[in-house]
Write a structure and sequence with these properties.
Cytochrome Bc1 Complex, Chain D, domain 2
């Protein structure tokens, strides 16, 4: 007959097996495995990766859209500008609104996390001084008639005659391109360039000289004027009853 000690050992072993079995039972949540509600996510890396990296690239290094980890861009675009664009998007362009108040999926707090995270993670004022960089918003009216001369001096070597593309870069008067970007975007890339694509900023387009505020404004006015030949606008002129918004009315 089994003695008392043996019975105790068997009982203890059985209990341990039962406890172990419960610990690994199917369906039991693991420690820290609780899912966070999408509107409670407050990590910049997660929010940027899920909402921004598809266009602006991993770590803000650029993709279909401009690099946000560009110190020049972060000098000319203020905190208020960055937040406004994230929250409300840019109507008439490929930049959507992300704030719930504008039809997006993110809370105001999450918009703040992304806006503040972009600057705290990637701004480098040592590489670009605000005193030296042209203004984000034009200080004067542009003259499209002066634009071609500015373009020829600073841009033609890469983008070719008339902006129709060259050996180093593609067309910037392409109808599809101009229909998807605002005048403000054009000004931004003239100033900041697209360093991830090898496109220089306003200081390096021509040897020994930088573009002036007025030259930037004039070449943007000329580029904007190229929208007048868009097929959609030609069709609108032939149908007086139809009214269409102008793409370059948005910043």
């Amino acid at each position: 007959m089994m003695n008392l000690r043996s019975s105790f050992v068997i009982a203890s072993a059985t209990a341990l097996i039962a406890i172990a079995g419960c610990d690994v039972s199917h369906g039991r949540p693991k420690p820290n495995s609780e899912e966070i509600s999408p509107d409670k996510v407050a990590d910049f890396g997660i929010l940027y990766s899920e909402n921004c990296s598809g266009c602006h690239g991993k770590d803000g290094k650029g993709g279909a859209a401009i690099a946000l980890a560009d110190p020049v861009y972060l000098v000319i675009a203020s905190d208020a500008v960055t937040r406004r664009v994230i929250a409300n998007g840019v109507p008439g362009t490929a930049m959507p609104a992300f704030a719930q108040s504008a039809g997006g999926m993110l809370t105001d707090k999450q918009v703040d996390v992304i806006s503040q995270g972009i600057r705290s993670s990637w701004a480098n004022v040592s590489q670009a001084s605000a005193a030296d960089v042209p203004s984000y918003i034009s200080k004067s009216n542009g003259n499209p008639e002066r634009g071609p001369a500015v373009y020829e001096k600073f841009c033609e070597s890469c983008h070719g005659h008339g902006g129709r593309g060259g050996a180093k870069a593609g067309s910037i008067v392409d109808h599809s391109f101009l229909s998807l970007v605002s005048d403000q975007y054009l000004r931004t890339i003239v100033i900041a360039g697209r360093p991830e694509l090898g496109a220089p900023d306003w200081r390096r387009n021509a040897p020994g000289t930088s573009m002036s505020e007025q030259e930037i404004t004039d070449v943007v006015a000329w580029l904007s004027s190229q929208r007048s030949s868009l097929p959609s606008e030609q069709q609108s002129k032939s149908k007086p009853a139809a009214k269409f918004g102008s793409a370059n009315a948005h910043n």
